Amino acid sequence: MTINTTGLELRNILAKDNSTQEVTETFKSKCVALVRNYLGGAWLNVRHADCDIKQITGGMSNILFKIDLPDNISVIGNQPKSTLLRLHGTDNAMALIIDTIIFTILSERQMGPKLYGIFDGGRFEEYIPSRCLIRTELRHSVVNQFLGKMYGKIHTLSCPINKEPMLFLSASGWINEVEKAYGSEHVFQIKTTQVNQKYLNNPIKNISIAQLRQELDILNKCMIASKSPIVFAHNDLQEGNILLKNKYALSDNGQLSSESNEDLDVDDAFTVIDYEYSNYNYRGFDFGNHFCEWGIGYEETNAPGYTINYQDFPTTKQMKPLIQCYLDELNNTSHDTTDDVETIALEAERFMPVSHFFWACWAFKMELNKEIDFGYQEYGMDRLSIYFENKHKLQEYLWLNC
């Protein structure tokens, strides 16, 4: 029997009863019907009354659930005992097609979780017993070693999607959605909430829709002038998208250990996830965006749901260990580059303001139909403030080409 349940239908069921974190019987029965169809085997024998479904912490746009087989059902062969259900946060058909293509390629190359099944508006993935990194762990040497190597692998991928940088089009689309909701005359009052004012010399007090577009045009000119290479990029490599498997531990001082006391395998210890925003982009953005995350934390449980630690944004000197590991990976895989560590570190620093502007536009768009308790509006204002404070670094590309 064909099951026509979609991700949107499941999200609507959740929205009808948002007063509790408990999974309703209606939602549970729909999920179990789907998982039977897509995983088959032992999963065909599960009843929704016996299946354990729990919502887990995820990103700020997708909704994630862990689904477990009951103990009395044995798996067949290499079938999973658990799976991750991901409900997409967008209904943009092309975006979902691209996301599916990318996830499939990465799954086949063992650069991310295994793919178990795809349905309209969601998918079933491998559940990896793990935890997300926290912001302060991004600085650790072992994490830089892993990420440098992963960036090398990601940036040399060839994916059958548009090879033009999509950053400008994405941000422009978000601004259009905001204008449609608020009107062309809308002005954002920029009141910083998490940015300490001592770090801002001339914070902008307000910005209109038209001014947002003007700033985006300036950014686009700077990015073109940068001559930063166009590569396949993750575009969202923050701590929540880096998993540390449960069989490993990372101490406060950055020492990696394993429960079996065997030789440590850094590549096995960590996994990069959530390629939702991946596409071809400027190399500088992928690095600059990651280094922005050194100063932005999402573990805060109180409003607005994030912290900004301006003093923790890295210097170019602090960026260099990760970038050196990146260059080592390129050289080891015969993907030579003429750029050195200094060049890429400076490129990353200059692209950090682009990241602040990009995610500010995203946040204003997300505020329109938010499904989680997160201060998108405040987040957008804070990141715009940091953008204007550091915009001059990006504009150096224009001055260098005068």
In short:
By secondary structure, the chain is an alpha+beta fold. It contains eleven helices and 16 strands. The longest helix has 26 residues, at 341-366.
Describe the structure.
The protein has 402 residues and is an alpha+beta fold. The chain has 2 domains: 7-127, Phosphorylase Kinase, domain 1; 131-400, Aminoglycoside 3'-phosphotransferase, Chain: A, domain 2 (Alpha-Beta Complex), CATH 3.90.1200. It has helices at residues 7-16, 25-39, 93-108, 141-155, 167-182, 209-226, 266-269, 283-292, 316-332, 341-366, 376-400; strands spanning 52-56, 63-68, 82-87, 115-119, 122-126, 130-132, 187-189, 206-208, 230-233, 242-245, 248-250, 256-258, 270-272, 279-282, 296-297, 307-308. The mean pLDDT is 91.
What fold name goes in the CATH topology slot of the largest domain?
Aminoglycoside 3'-phosphotransferase, Chain: A, domain 2
Write the element-wise H/E pattern from the N-terminal end onward: HHEEEHEEEHHEEHEEEEHEEHEEHHH
Subunit arrangement of the protein: single chain
Give the spatial strand order of the biggest sheet: 1-2-3-5-4
Give the DSSP E fraction (strand runs of 2 or more residues). Answer: 15-25%
Distance between the termini: 66 Å
The appropriate CATH architecture of the largest domain is Alpha-Beta Complex
Number of strands: 16
Biggest pleated-sheet summary: 5 strands, antiparallel
Low-pLDDT stretches are none
Q: Please give the domain count.
A: 2
How would you classify the helix and strand content by structural class? alpha+beta
The value of Rg in angstroms is 22 Å
User: Number of helix segments?
Assistant: 11
Helix amount, in percent? Answer: 40-55%
Give the CATH class of the largest domain.
Alpha Beta
Organism: Rhabditophanes sp. KR3021
Protein name: Choline/ethanolamine kinase
